[in-house]
Specification:
Elements (H helix, E strand, L loop, with lengths): L1 E4 L18 H15 L7 H9 L20 E4 L2 E3 L2 H11 L6 E5 L5 H8 L3 E6 L2 H13 L6 E5 L12 E6 L8 H6 E12 L5 E9 L2 E12 L9
Parallel strand pairs: 4-5, 4-7, 5-6, 7-8
Antiparallel strand pairs: 1-10, 2-3, 8-9, 9-10
């Protein structure tokens, strides 16, 4: 649920064509997003690009905001939450290095868009949201678009993870906490990867790549970001 990013641009690869189901009036905006906001800024994984082209971001937004579906900006989805800008979704997904059939724990379902991108890539997604209204709305859209079989939703405190389904080879967190929650660190599989924003609510935040090697966590800063706060026992 990013509000902004400050990553440097990069240029230069071929655009992956998307599904024709995107309404005609949004198609040119979708194509511009793929090239200008993703490829030109360094997103290069073909599977990520294919998923970003195929998943209809417009379906995960309130009707009055759908004209802005493929703008590279976060948009409100209710409950004080936002849907992340396309670049951030693609960047985090690429950093996660998801493979088909892989279990992914997502903290912060929001509108369901990130879960749909992961499901489009063949992941088995377990997603936790603290707001019932958002979770139910996301479930309805995910089912309508055919992603329901790949996404299991729960309304709960995401900072505590999903113990009965652990360990997870991949974990993605879409809100910024003061630190990496111990529960999530414990549920990350050996050799796994976690992408999570960490920082102050209205101050400096950084997107971290967390890996686990021989039981130890290694953290690497990826870029400066701005996310809504991660609420819960191990958050704010």
């Amino acid at each position: 649920m990013a509000e902004e990013d400050r990553a440097p641009p990069a240029r230069g690869k071929e655009v992956v064509p998307g599904r024709e189901e995107v309404p005609e009036e949004l198609r040119s905006r979708r194509d511009a997003m793929l090239e200008r906001d993703l490829l030109d800024r360094g997103i290069s994984d073909p599977e990520v690009m294919r998923a970003m082209a195929r998943v209809r971001r417009d379906r995960f937004l309130p009707a009055d905001l759908r004209i802005h579906s493929f703008d590279d900006t976060p948009l409100r989805i209710g409950c004080g939450q936002t849907i992340s800008q396309p670049y951030i979704v693609a960047y985090m997904t690429e950093a996660l290095e998801v493979e088909a059939g892989m279990k992914v724990l997502e903290i912060g379902t929001g509108s369901g868009y990130q879960a749909a991108v992961l499901a489009e890539m063949g992941a088995e997604v377990f997603s936790i949201e603290r707001f019932e209204d958002l979770s139910y709305a996301a479930e309805a859209v995910l089912d309508e678009l055919g992603y329901g079989e790949n996404v299991t939703l729960r309304v709960d405190d995401g900072t505590l993870g999903w113990p009965e389904e652990a360990p997870f080879p991949r974990i993605i967190v879409t809100a910024a906490g003061p630190r990496v929650p111990e529960a999530l660190a414990g549920q990350l599989a050996e050799g796994g990867r976690m992408v999570i924003p960490v920082g102050e609510v209205r101050g400096e935040q950084h997107l971290l790549l967390v890996t686990k090697e021989e039981g130890k966590l290694l953290e690497r800063e990826l870029l400066e970001v701005r996310f809504v706060p991660l609420m819960g026992r191990e958050g704010y």
